[in-house]
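Anyone opening a protein record will find just a pair of labelled lines. With that in mind, the following record should read easily:
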Amino acid sequence: MRQPIRAMVAMWPEITARLLPPDLRRRLDGLVTVVPDTPVTDFAVASAGEDLAATDVLITGWGCPPVDAAVLAAAPRLTAIFHAGGTVKPLLTEDAWQRGITISSAADAGAGPVADFTLAVVVLAGKRALPAARRYAAGHFPNHAQRVDGNDGRVVGVIGASRIGRRVIPRLAAAGYRVLVSDPYLDPADAAALGAELVDVDECCRRAGILSLHAPAIPATRHLIDARRLALMPDGATLINTARGALVDTEALTAACASGRIDAVLDVTDPEPLPPGHPLFSLPNVLITPHVAGVQGSELRRLGDFAVDELERFLLGEPLLGQVHRADLPILA
């Protein structure tokens, strides 16, 4: 008789109730035997080690310690990890890939809120809402002749045809924006199918009134938007970063925004968090949010739903929708 599949949940307890609310936890319990009943945050604890020895799959999330060689040695039956979160890079060491463990990420489930946030910011940026709001607070209420900014015919540049970029581009195109995209792994036909024109990064900066970043943080993209490329952006342009702070040279951006020549909306910064009193906080044409574009609050359930769906597909022998392959890591966020 086949033994029941045993799963371990490894994440911060305070986040578990949102990732796996009661009805979703009951569904999980119907698929596998979860041992222990409470989430694990330290694999080195003796009781966790005993449970690891009989664990077939891991359900992971924020707060899961790294799955390294010692963990794998303690878990000889482990065959799959289902991550109820985005990137798996901080979670896994090379040992997991060498072992041939199946890895799935719920990054696709988390992409929707970021795309929604980006689209909302694009609309505000096209109307230059940030500087307009500050001028209004200072007593200036424009008449119709002075209202010169709008979104009709606006050119938006997207850096990175990532899972989020690929959600943003078609929606921008459908809304009537002229969309440029820059991505070294995209060809012109693929860009056209998304609804965009493929250009290089410099041209994207030069032509776009709104520039939205959706590239991964890898060595090749560090400070991709530097002083030179910021200087290419048109006067009155807006830089939006919902990807990774390291894509932008913070010092150069601070200078460019302080001049009043360009605006910025930053959901991520470098460093993160940005230290209190940083000059960017005080600029009237800059909005900085504390990494809220991704799943928040009630949206966290999306990640748990995806992870449990993936587990069920795995148990049924069906293809996984969020499988991560070792070869893709260099270009993933």
About this structure: The chain has 14 helices and twelve strands.
